[in-house]
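Risk register update: the risk of archive-format incompatibility is retired. Evidence:
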Amino acid sequence: MNSMDRHIQQTNDRLQCIKQHLQNPANFHNAATELLDWCGDPRAFQRPFEQSLMGCLTVVSRVAAQQGFDLDLGYRLLAVCAANRDKFTPKSAEFYSCHHPHNLA
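Archived output:
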């Protein structure tokens, strides 16, 4: 495994961990903040990370409006990713027609 493959694997492992934390109100804020920071880098939207990132965003869209979670943070995260949806494959870009930030509330 070369260093790029190792980096991709480590990043995807971290995204899976973040996905788990996003499902828990006690951890949501820290996990969503970490993900929001990560999404500030255009490299976050590269193909090797897409499936893991979409998994996280699916959780955010499902839980952010629930009591104990942070709707505003969830909205900001989805909005940042929606602004970069041109970097996604068509299947992932479709996600935003159903989970657009405006549909959260």
